[in-house]
Amino acid sequence: MCLTSLPDIVKVVWTGKSASDKTQLHSPFTIRKDKVYNALKWLVQNHEDYKYHVTINESMMNDWDDIFVAIELLNSIGHVSDPSAEDASRDGFGMDDPDGDDTAGDLPFTSSGIVGMNNIAEIPDSTSLTRLLDSRRILLSMSLRVRKF
User: Fold this and answer.
1) How many structural domains are present in the chain?
2) Does the reported pTM lie above 0.85?
3) Of 90, 109, 140, which residue is a domain's last?
4) What is the C-alpha to C-alpha distance for residues 60 and 63, in angstroms, rounded to an integer?
5) 87-114, pLDDT tens digit by residue?
6) Most C-beta atoms within 10 A of its C-beta, which of 2, 77, 88, 128?
């Protein structure tokens, strides 16, 4: 797979009232060749699904820069102003029977996920508990400093 075909496989949707400023998203779309290569190598050596079914394309990886931004993927970001529409598209369950006689060859694989930026997709209770814990740590450190004087 070449990098230019990445948007054909991975879809990124920005949810929020205003569209994203793509210049501020370079960090999450930065690819570090050594990290990708080492992860693939480990998977091929240690994971049954990779061990017998995946071959690392060394020549393609050698053509990659050491660190780069996946510009094609960054430029393909979609925008949805109402996140409930995006959430609703993920609801439900599949009815296909992959073990049926009419299924031939490899099964299609699709996945969907949400990556939270700036705590947008975090669970409110979890965020509140984390903030309380951080506040407690700050107060404890302040009280320790006051006792020293």
Assistant:
1) 2
2) no
3) 90
4) 5
5) 555 555 555 555 555 655 555 555 555 5
6) 77
